[in-house]
Amino acid sequence: MKKSFINLLLFVLLSVFVFGCAAGPQLSQMQIRQLTTKMIDGNYENVFRATMTILQDQGYVIKNTDMNSGLIVANIDRETSGGSQFAQALFLGQITDKNTIIEVSATVNKLNDKTQELRINLQETNYSGNGAKNNIKQIYDEKIYQQLFNDITVEVKRREAINS
């Protein structure tokens, strides 16, 4: 009885681990653009600086900026969560991904004096213990993008209120 319960528990945990990591549906280029792009009301400089501020607030390290082209590149090094490391050790006998780097590139395009187009791309890179890249993938989680755009919009409004 105990052995069958343990086998059932291992099967459930393995299923969650395997199916929880499955890739989502494929998005078209237009769907990706809609997900990663938003029109922001505000002047160019406020949108550009608000984007940098929000990225820094979330722990990203700004690696490169160019206000003329509107480009911001930043990244964050996130340790894999303890629960994920436990699951890897349990099922694989080792921890394969100790580090994950999330890189963000944001581009602010000036449409006019009052509205800017902001496009954000997020990429996740998993590294092995020896520093080799294991997996690189684009992040297309609607909640993440929506939260970023909302935070940036609020920061633009805050800046505008201060400057008024």
Distance between the termini: 72 Å
Query: What is the global morphology?
Result: globular
Return the CATH architecture. 2-Layer Sandwich
CATH H-level homologous superfamily name: Kinase associated domain 1, KA1
- Count of separate DSSP helical elements: 5
- Helix/strand order: HHEHEEHEEEH
Low-confidence stretches: 5-22
Structural class: alpha+beta
**Overall strand count:** 6
Largest sheet: 6 strands, antiparallel
Portion in beta strands: 25-35%
Q: Quaternary status of these chains?
A: single chain
Short description:
The protein is α+β, with helices and mostly antiparallel strands and 164 residues long. It contains five helices and six strands; from the N terminus they run ααβαββαβββα.
Give a verbal description of the structure.
There is one protein chain. The protein contains five helices and six strands; from the N terminus they run H-H-E-H-E-E-H-E-E-E-H. It starts with a helix and ends with a helix. With 164 residues, it is of the alpha+beta class. It is globular. Strands 1, 2, 3, 4, 5 and 6 form a six-stranded antiparallel β-sheet that branches. A hairpin with a 5-residue loop joins strand 5 and strand 6. Helix 3 (44-57) packs across helix 5. It has one domain (24-163): Kinase associated domain 1, KA1 (TATA-Binding Protein), CATH 3.30.310.80. The longest helix has 22 residues, at 142-163. The relative contact order is 0.17. It has helices at 2-20, 29-36, 44-57, 82-92, 142-163, and strands spanning 37-41, 61-66, 71-79, 99-110, 115-127, 133-139.
